[in-house]
Design brief:
Order of helices and strands of chain B: EEEEEEEEEEE
Largest sheet of chain B: 7 strands, mixed
Shape of chain B: globular
Radius of gyration of chain B: 13 Å
Number of strands of chain B: 11
Distance between the termini of chain B: 36 Å
Oligomer: heterodimer
Structural class of chain B: mainly beta
């Protein structure tokens, strides 16, 4: 059974700092990995999607990498801002039919 | 506007009273899915559907039913709700199942008394 783990569970940083969020998965046979942002009481907003054949994806200040062989993905956030404060979730899709497993998330607080 | 919509957004009901949460997408996506989110347990997949009339069980399907009669709609049915189904429910869709970005609806907060 696929298991997805996100470390740390919570992270607090001062504004302007670069930071890395981690996501690990137990079964490397995945189709894609997606990073989401969730604000309190809100839905999920897609940040980046990495296909299994890709190594990384970038969008603005965000960069996500994928190492399937080691079962790891990282989300790098450059020059963090208070508006980046949210919970960040990673999800792996591990069948072509779309069976998905989510990590428990990392709650990020960026202090002004 | 491309979106996934869910109704109702909030619902309080009593044990045993059948209910349906609707989900609709206007992006012509083939894949749709239901998740529940609980504190300490994260997001767990309930059911998913690759296309019309094709549905599969996720990790926590017990107590739920789904149907996919039309491409755009994927209702979640609780035939006899119980308090342990109190949760925040999300519907999601993507163009194709395994290879596409998932887009999420705003969520439905369900309380079963």
């Amino acid at each position: 059974k696929q298991e997805v783990t996100q470390i740390p569970a919570a992270l607090s940083v001062p504004e302007g700092e670069n930071l890395v969020l981690n996501c690990s998965f137990t079964d490397s046979a995945i189709y894609n990995l997606q990073w989401f942002r969730q604000d309190p009481g809100k839905g999920l907003t897609s940040l980046l999607l990495i296909q299994s054949s890709q190594r990384e994806q970038t969008s603005g200040r965000l960069n996500a990498s994928l190492d399937k062989s080691s079962g790891r993905s990282t989300l790098y956030i450059a020059a963090s801002q208070p508006g980046d404060s949210a919970t960040y979730l990673c999800a792996v899709v591990h069948t072509n039919a779309g069976k998905s497993t989510f990590g428990d998330g990392t709650t990020l607080t960026v202090k002004p | 506007e491309a979106q996934v919509t869910q109704n109702p957004r909030y619902l309080i009901t009593v044990t045993g009273k059948k209910l349906t949460v609707t989900c609709s997408q206007n992006m012509n996506h083939e894949y749709m899915s239901w998740y529940r989110q609980d504190p300490g347990l994260g997001l767990r997949q309930i059911y998913y559907s690759m296309n019309v009339e094709v549905t599969d069980k996720g990790d926590v399907p017990e107590g739920y039913k789904v149907s996919r009669k039309e491409k755009r709609n994927f209702p979640l049915i609780l035939e006899s709700p119980s308090p342990n189904q109190t949760s925040l429910y999300f519907c999601a869709s993507s163009l194709f199942g395994g290879r596409s970005e998932q887009f999420f609806g705003p969520g439905t907060r369900l309380t079963v008394l």
